[in-house]
Fold LysR substrate-binding domain-containing protein.
Amino acid sequence: MVTPADVRAARLIVPHRAGARSELAAWMGVDAPALAIAGRYDLLYNAARFAREGAGCVFALDGIVDASPESGLAFVPLEPPRTAGVYLVWKRSQAHSRAARLFLEELRWLVAEAEEGEGAPDKAETVLTDGVQA
């Protein structure tokens, strides 16, 4: 586990999206200008390459990049943990390929399972409809 004290002096590579810096600062209990931001990223793959070369610590969701022992990277959970909402959006009237239709069917099934208590409890409030997540 990584705590705010563990990374307070570290060079940080954070998502470029609006609010990422202030969210991280709030988790660490410091003002945003106090963060040692070494860089920002839009593509996690690129940020992972910088981390592998020692440019800093990357803050990202687990499971997006290879963090196996062979990768030279490690995913270390935060303590206290942070959660993130994820949205999947598509055009309601768009014709989908067979692969896209199968993906959406599987996704709806997984969400239904989670809502029935079979899946992760943090998924229980997720509702998917045609093209909209509420």
Remarks:
- The helical segments are 4-7, 20-28, 44-52, 98-115.
- Residues 120-134 have pLDDT under 50 and may be disordered.
- The chain has two domains: 4-71, 98-133.
